[in-house]
Amino acid sequence: MRIWDWLLELDRRWVFLGIALTVAIPIITVYTLPLGKPAPPTEMVYDYIENLEPGSVVLVSFDYGPSSMPELHPQAMAVVRHCLLNDLRVISIALNPQGTALGQEVMNTVAEDLGAEEGVQWVHLGYRPGFGQVILRMGESIPQLYTTTPDGRLTAELPVMEGVQNYDDIALVVDFAASAVPGTWLAFAHERYGQQLAIGITAVMATDFYPYLQSDQLVGLINGLKGAAEYEDLLGLEGEKAQGKLGMAAQSFAHLLIIVLVVLGNIAYFASGRHRRRRR
Amino acid sequence: MPDAAPQIFGLSTEVIGVWIATFLTLAIFSFLYRDNPVYKLAEHIFVGVSAGYGVVIVYHEAVIPLLINPLFRPELADLESPNYIVIIPGLLGLMMFSRFFPRYDWLSRWPIAFVMGLSSGLAIPATVQTNLLPQLYATLNPILPLGDIDPWTATSNFLLVVGVICTLAYFYFSREHAGALGVASRIGIFFLMVAFGASFGNTVMARVSLLIGRFQFLYYDWWQGQVMRLFGG
Hints:
The complex is a heterodimer. Chain A is an alpha/beta fold. Chain A contains twelve helices and six strands. Chain A has helices spanning 3-8, 12-28, 40-50, 69-85, 99-114, 131-138, 142-145, 181-193, 203-214, 224-235, 243-271, 274-279; strands at 57-63, 89-94, 122-127, 172-177, 197-201, 220-223. The longest helix of chain A has 29 residues, at 243-271. Chain B has helices at 13-29, 37-72, 87-95, 109-138, 151-170, 179-230; strands at 7-8, 11-12. At the A-B interface, helix 2, helix 4, helix 6, helix 8 and helix 9 of A face helix 2, helix 4 and helix 6 of B.
């Protein structure tokens, strides 16, 4: 059997093994690669938050589940850290039932690391069902929608909620999502109430949302694990606080292997003469 | 906060959680070799736990604060007296459960009709305001490098306008794709291919990221955090 036929009939489990090794080795050896210049959409989110006045309110929405954690958790950690470092107030919510525990974990982890006081600098208001209606209702009254925190405290009495009634009092909404929720934020919060919106999304969704950057409907976009790593780099984070950066060497090597496999597969396809057989 | 985690048989629930998650991760990975009962077990556990977790969260963070507290414990909902209006959405919600009783399942059409009507009413104008008009405005850009428009921006705008027109031409099916329309639709295919390529590249990046997340968990949380500690590493 010629090498090209052998390559085309290679058991795909060898490809799985190759990808597994390509990903595992950089993680085990803690090998890192330089990131280069951050993508403009990531930098736009960073710059917008950097330019907010201390005490401004940022609403963070955790709209993802564990299946998207590797991409969105590092993004959320970095953005919440940036907000708390800049003395911004952070109000977090979840429009996905699985997002509420993940959001609580992000808020607890970052706040504990920075010593940010719960109820004063940040609060996690938890989950409410029906994301479209929740987003619309917040345009009227956030304290009436989230009357209490998940542990039963009245939100109106929390210092972090002082002066916060609706979107007029929110400087920026950052939505971390692995679903169509950012489209609803755009329609109901941005278009109807003029709310400034940034999104952190999985790479699969990125091409769907780039047009909204070009039309200035978004202030910025963080794209997948790469976006998380870029944001961590902008913040100057290193080590275990930069989970996104830790994964980027594995990501780059896996991409290289996939490119090599795609090129080899195409060469093998044409060199073996299969394209002629298929045409007949 | 490992110290705060509750214990079962002298073992921290965090430690137990890491071992269970490791078993389930490896069980799902085993499908890459071939389908097997351990994979199916993990798959069923995932579906069941996701559904169960969703029910618990909805009950505690939606049903209690939005229905039970306003009706029976108004002081916890920052109300002076019970808010009886919430009975209406509560009843509509209960009517959804009539699906379980074939004789009365017609009742579930009412809340479904309410949700459908509300969603359509909200979505139709919102789609026009969000997707159609702003995106249309965003394509009305200067394509000549005149005034303060630099050549790079003008070229970029030109490509955008050509891409939009040619892609729309590809989706115009009321005339044969011949002549100028044929050329435009062929150029449109080129732009579509570029878009699909970008989508595919991002999809690969997303899937590899998920694998990286699992491998990081297996190496840092399980291997270094549990196994090495167990053997005194």
